[in-house]
Write a structure and sequence with these properties.
16% of the residues lie in helices and 35% in strands. By secondary structure, the protein is α+β, with helices and mostly antiparallel strands.
Amino acid sequence: MLRASRRAAASVAIALVLVTTALAPGRAQRPTALSAAEPARVAVIGADYAFVQLRTTLDAGPTLFAFENRGAKRHEMSIVLLRPDVAVESLLTGDRPSVSSRAVSDSIIGLLLARPGERSGGQLYVNLVVGRTYVVICTLRDTPDAHQHADLGMVGSFRVR
């Protein structure tokens, strides 16, 4: 009998903790960003010196980017928000300004790295802005004196609608 009453008391105590936690101010009522809108998912594939099938337009809003390297060299996927007054074509020349400079980009969104034949260990969460252009670029070099992968063609862009 004593055992049964202890179990009942323990059950009541656990139930009270659960109810109190669920009803605590700010706990259950506060929506999270992910519950408000499930992010779109974009898989970016890198090969040796190119981003393969990079989409040229994406929808505005929350977006998760993943990166997979199908090449034989180590690659990165950097995403930057291009300034409205900078043309993507200016970044495709050999005398390209640094995409991380304030003269070129409004914001450096993030960077994912992947070894040959692997996926990056994480994803980038971006709230894409309508009407803006983003640049995807790999600025790694195979050796210290080699050209950047972007110089060899590993640069692309997309516009947000």
